[in-house]
Design goal:
Layout: H1 14-26, E1 31-35, H2 40-48, E2 73-80, E3 83-84, H3 91-102, E4 105-107, E5 120-123, H4 126-130
Antiparallel strand pairs: 1-2, 2-3, 2-5, 4-5
Helix pairs in contact: 1-3
Length: 134
């Protein structure tokens, strides 16, 4: 099962993640970390979703192509009235995205993203850090 532990993130991204989560807290935003590290097998299953398995397409990354596979990304969801708010059109997502970017992370929910993933934040140069070609 995918990890939700911040300690599973690599040290190259941890300062940005800590700053991001602290900024969310300072802004009065309650966010839940839903994923940090993910195995290649789990990534393969997610990639199949909406393609060869039931459900909606949630990622364009195959195994080894996601920053999650290297401990260089996290997914979050804002908690509104004690419940996760997965509606990426809610203005709270823009606020959270801006805080992540200000902390030095890349937000895949930013306007103009070819495959918007509002919950996903990653190290801005994760491929280099992970030692893989772009």
């Amino acid at each position: 099962m995918s990890s939700r532990k911040l300690d599973d993130l690599r040290p190259e991204v941890r300062p940005q993640v800590d700053a991001f989560l602290a900024a969310c807290e300072s802004a009065g935003l309650d966010v839940l970390v839903t994923c940090t590290l993910r195995s290649n097998d789990e990534q393969t299953q997610l990639y199949a979703q909406g393609r060869t398995a039931p459900g909606h397409i949630v990622t364009n990354a195959k195994a080894g192509q996601s920053a999650h596979n290297y401990g260089l990304a996290l997914d979050i969801v804002p908690m509104v009235n004690g419940k996760p708010d997965w509606n990426g059109k809610d203005p709270v997502w823009q606020q959270i995205g801006e805080l992540g970017v200000a902390a030095g992370l890349t937000w895949l929910g930013s306007p103009g993203s070819s495959f918007p993933e509002e919950p996903h934040f990653e190290h801005s140069d994760w491929r280099t850090v992970a030692g893989i070609a772009a």
